[in-house]
Amino acid sequence: MHLLTRRTAFAAALLYFPACAASAPAASTATADASATTDGAATADGAVGGDAAAGGGDTSAGETATGSDASADASADTASSTGTPFGVGLLKVEVAGPGGRKLPTSIWYPTAVGAKGTAVSYGFGLFPSPLGAQEGVAPAKGPFPTVAFSHGNQGVPEQSVFLTEGLAARGYVVVAPEHIGNSFTTFDEKLFAAVTLWRPKDLSAAVDRLTKPQAGDPPWLAGLADTEKLAVTGHSFGGYTSLAFAGIVVSPPASAMPKCEGVAKGDPVCDAVAAAGPPPWNLGDPRCDVAIPLAHALTAGFDVKSLAGHKVPIVLAAATGDKLTPYKAEAEAAYKAMQPPKALLTLTGGDHFSFAQACELAAVAPANLKADLEKLCKPGAVPTIADSHTATLFTTLAACDLYLKGDEAARATFANGSFAGLNGISMASEGIVK
Q1: Nearest by Cα to 427 from 364, 343, 334
Q2: What stretches of 206-341 adopt beta strand conformation (E)?
Q3: How far apart are CA 52 and CA 49, in angstroms?
Q4: What is the residue extent of each domain of the chain?
Q5: Residue 111 contacts residue 89 (beta carbons within 8 Å)
Q6: Phi and psi (nearest 5°) for 56?
Q7: Where are the alpha helices (DSSP H) in 355-384?
Q8: ∠ CA 346-347-353, rounded to 5°
Q9: Are 185 and 103 contacting, i.e. CB atoms less than 8 angstroms apart?
Q10: What one-character-per-residue DSSP string does 88-139 give?
Q11: Mean local confidence (pLDDT), 362-377
Q12: Segment 195-243, tens digit of pLDDT
């Protein structure tokens, strides 16, 4: 496939994932820190990722200069100028997932600032790493707390690198599997019921992989992550995955259950349902300490009592202009049903794609999405995409700092009211701020 065609197809992949077919102790500090991690207001959201689902990165394609010494030097210089405590490394591995699936998986991790390897870019060279991430470099001294990230329906693991790289640059290992059967290159609508069950288990398998080295792994991988300090986040269908991973019980309506009576063994959907047993299903990972779902889907598919009685802190993030996972039906309904500790970051006027890399993709987006993306990325947008990403990153960071590192100062980020003075962004919480 011609490079331009591949880039356009990759952009479409990142955009088309509709649902279902050191800490900043206070929000004002978070804003200042976030501005230091980007190249300016117009590109504050950074660059997008996604070579795992699109057939691999640019460094081996011979289409960019990402493997050159000059590029590595420039990328490392970017990392050293961000003001974050760490540089960012990227390692790609394969994970054995449920259903006999092999899951390409991206791992972002902290490195020494200025460490040089092979510079990372995403999307066949269309998007540079926002924080100068490098492949083939050793990590900083760990182990580090772990964050599992779940991409959206028909998406890719690198859809929100402003978040995954941003967390790694602040002392977290972020692991993101490609949900085979529900990613851009592997999407199969007939597998929807199966991937609903597989997705949380994909995350558990990816977290396990961090501590179970295999032949060909770098020797440092086994000591990289502390998987007993574990957070989860994800976007859209990945937000559903985050809630299920946190132990919210999945209780689908009878009408949504596949018809498996009389179906022979070997059917992937019916085999997945048989392995899970009769609903409701607890697909949670007991290691999970906090969940941060972004524009999550399928609130109605969770058990009401489980939503009300969950034990893991939940920090929701959502946008009032979201047409794919509507704010009132998803985030607002879930927040009202949940018990404390809980929080809800609201982007008033934001969109479903406020939590992904929208602006860099607008130029190559399909016509049916181009106008919405351009609206998000206009300088006068409320909230701006830069502010949306700032708020998302530092809300996620504060949740991880509080519940994984015990940083009590991070509670201040969850104060009710406007978020760090960012226009159109607010926070509501219960049971977090003391």
Answers
A1: 343
A2: 225-235, 288-294, 314-319
A3: 9
A4: 3-304
A5: yes
A6: 115, 165
A7: 367-377
A8: 120
A9: no
A10: EEEEEEEEE-GGG-EEEEEEEEEE-TT--SEE-EETTTTEE-TT--EES-PP
A11: 82
A12: 999 999 999 999 999 999 999 999 999 999 999 999 999 999 999 999 9
Domain 3-304 fold is Rossmann fold (3.40.50)
pLDDT for the residue numbered 82: 64
Backbone angles phi, psi at 109, to 5 degrees: -150, 160
70 contacts: CB under 8 Å, gap ≥ 6: none
Mean pLDDT across the chain: 84
- Non-local CB neighbours of 91 within 8 Å, separated by 6+ positions: 106, 107, 109, 135, 218, 221
Task: Provide the edge-to-edge strand list for the sheet that holds 102-111.
Answer: 118-119, 134-135, 87-96, 102-111, 173-177, 144-150, 225-235, 288-294, 314-319, 342-347, 425-430, 417-418
Q: Are strands 144-150 and 225-235 parallel, antiparallel or unpaired?
A: parallel
Residue 14 — left, alpha, or beta (φ > 0 → left; ψ -120 to 50 → alpha)? Answer: alpha
Phi, psi of 206 (to 5 degrees): -70, -40
Peptide bond just before 258 cis, omega within 30 deg: no
Residues paired with 111 in a beta bridge:
87
Return the C-alpha torsion angle 16, 232, 149, 425, nearest 10: 50
Report whether pLDDT(412) > 70: yes
Q: How many helices (H) and strands (E) does the chain have?
A: 11, 14
236 vs 324: CA distance, rounded Å: 9
What distance in Å separates the CA atoms of residue 140 and residue 285, rounded to the nearest whole number?
Answer: 27
Cβ–Cβ under 8 Å, residues 417 and 28 = no
In this structure, are strands 417-418 and 314-319 parallel, antiparallel, or unpaired? unpaired
Tokens 């404390």 correspond to 340
Output the CA angle 62-65-68, nearest 5 degrees: 110
Q: Where are the alpha helices (DSSP H) in 291-346?
A: 304-309, 333-337
Largest CA distance in the chain: 62
Reduced to 3 states, what is the DSSP secondary structure of residue 87? strand
